[in-house]
Specification:
- By secondary structure, the protein is of the alpha+beta class.
- It has four domains: 23-51 and 297-394, conserved putative lor/sdh protein from methanococcus maripaludis s2 fold (Beta Barrel), CATH 2.40.420; 54-65 and 215-293, Efflux pump adaptor protein, beta barrel domain (Elongation Factor Tu (Ef-tu), domain 3, Beta Barrel); 69-101 and 181-214, RNA polymerase II/Efflux pump adaptor protein, barrel-sandwich hybrid domain (OB fold (Dihydrolipoamide Acetyltransferase, E2P)), CATH 2.40.50.100; 102-179.
- The chain is 26% helix and 37% strand.
- The protein is built from five helices and 23 strands.
- It has helices spanning 2-23, 33-39, 103-133, 139-165, 380-394; strands spanning 28-32, 42-44, 47-62, 68-72, 77-82, 89-90, 95-100, 181-185, 190-195, 202-203, 208-213, 219-225, 237-242, 250-257, 266-273, 285-301, 306-308, 311-318, 325-326, 332-333, 342-356, 359-363, 375-378.
- Strands 3-12-15-14-13-16 form a six-stranded antiparallel β-barrel. A four-stranded antiparallel sheet has the order 4-11-9-6, with no helix packed on it. A four-stranded antiparallel sheet has the order 8-7-5-10, with no helix packed on it.
- Strand 21 and strand 22 (359-363) form a beta hairpin.
- Helix 3 (103-133) runs antiparallel to helix 4 (139-165).
- The longest helix has 31 residues, at 103-133.
- The protein is elongated, with a radius of gyration of 43 Å.
């Protein structure tokens, strides 16, 4: 009887040791049939899928330099009239103010005076040219008249340009319409964003009267960190959201890439919007994703990848191992007759890559068999919770 008891104790110890090793097997999790049903577990395969890499950046809406104009007076004078108000819309060529200066009268008068002199010199030039060709007049006289005529012609051309700058048409200028007030016209269509004048104020040529901005062609000015510069290319698609528009998504494309890195180790990327919107305003803050290109990668639904202590895992279906079990009377059951239905899973450490449209790139161990593995695509967090609880009880 002592020998029988000794053999019995060894058998019990052997079973206990086997069960302990079974439960402590690293990465292996078992669920009962009820737990499996509760978790609503689904399986899937690792598939090759085309995913686009992205760069997350911030930026603002801005206008190109040619779409923002600073309006100044060509010559000094007093503001005679103005209707400028911040925010008002103006059209190109529209009168936005008028300026008064007695010097305007002198320029017009000089132009009309030179106009008459030029007519006389032109006639004298033609007469001396004929005389010179017939050897009646000397070359010296002809050269002197020619010099005076061309000098006056040049001066008259310069005065005509000054009048055009002052928005006075030299072709229609006569003695009867000389004026001391000239109009200032809007050089572009857009919105007035600053006004620096009022009636009666004297402005110098370098003074800013107002600023006009054309917001029809806004672009996105993005800030990209140095580590992502090598991924940038012209024409790449951009998806962005304005902070005041919730989840509304807009699109643009990379138009220009700056080639100078700033002191904060970033570069500026200029992007054109695919669709213009007059409701947008400069300096609106935005968040964007620059798509760096598509490639075929091993992927799984995001729900298949779980994380524990900073490590990503997936669970695959594993075969059940046969272990000796006992019923309520202590009698051993056959290894091929489990107490209840069980499901086994194996945890595989992976790395998560690109994520897009609910799918994630997954980097697998070198010896992983993609064709045979059945991956848990739904319910993975329930299995992870069971695994962590089991490990906690073991400690």
């Amino acid at each position: 009887m002592l020998g029988f008891a000794s053999c019995g104790n060894k058998s019990i110890e052997k079973v206990a040791t086997s069960e302990q090793q079974h439960h402590e097997e690293k990465g292996r999790v078992e669920l009962t049939g009820a737990q499996f049903k509760f978790a609503n577990i689904e399986f899937g395969k690792i598939e090759s899928r085309s995913l686009s890499g992205t760069i997350a950046v911030n930026g603002i809406l801005d206008v190109p330099p040619q779409n923002m104009v600073t309006v100044s007076a060509i010559m000094g004078g007093f503001i005679k009239t103005t209707k400028l108000l911040q925010g008002m819309e103006v059209k190109e060529g529209e009168v936005i103010a008028s300026i008064q200066n007695p010097d305007f009268i002198q320029i017009q008068s000089q132009f009309l005076e030179n106009k008459q002199k030029l007519l006389f010199l032109e006639q004298e030039y033609k007469r001396q040219e004929e005389l010179y060709q017939e050897n009646v007049s000397s070359a010296k006289i002809f050269q002197q008249v020619s010099s005076e005529f061309h000098t006056m012609e040049a001066n008259q051309g310069a005065l005509a340009e000054r009048l055009l700058i002052l928005n006075i048409n030299p072709k229609t200028l006569t003695q009867s319409n000389i004026r001391s007030t000239v109009n200032i016209l809007a050089p572009i269509s857009g919105f007035v964003i600053t006004v620096n004048v009022n009636l009666g104020k004297y402005v110098q040529p370098q003074d800013i009267i107002c600023e006009i901005m054309d917001t029809k062609h806004l672009h996105a000015e993005l800030t990209v960190f140095e580590k992502d510069i090598s991924k940038l290319k012209k024409g790449q698609k951009i998806r962005f959201q304005l902070v005041n528009e919730g989840n509304r998504e807009r699109t643009a494309y990379v138009f220009l890439i700056n080639h100078q890195i700033s002191t904060d180790r970033t570069i500026r990327v200029h992007a054109h919007l695919d669709k213009e919107d007059l409701n947008l305003m400069p300096n609106m803050y935005l968040k964007a994703l620059i798509e760096t290109g598509s490639e075929n990668v091993n992927s799984l639904p995001e729900s298949a990848i779980v994380q524990s202590e900073g490590i990503d895992y997936i669970f695959i279906k594993a075969g059940l191992e046969n272990h000796a079990q006992t019923d309520t009377t202590g009698k051993n059951l056959e290894a091929n007759e489990p107490k209840e239905e069980e499901h086994a899973f194996e945890a595989i450490e992976v790395k998560k890559g690109l994520v897009q449209n609910g799918f994630a790139e997954v980097f697998l161990p070198k010896d992983f068999d993609i064709r045979k593995a059945e991956v848990v695509t739904k319910g993975a967090y329930v299995i992870l919770a069971k695994r962590e609880n089991t490990e906690g009880e073991g400690h």
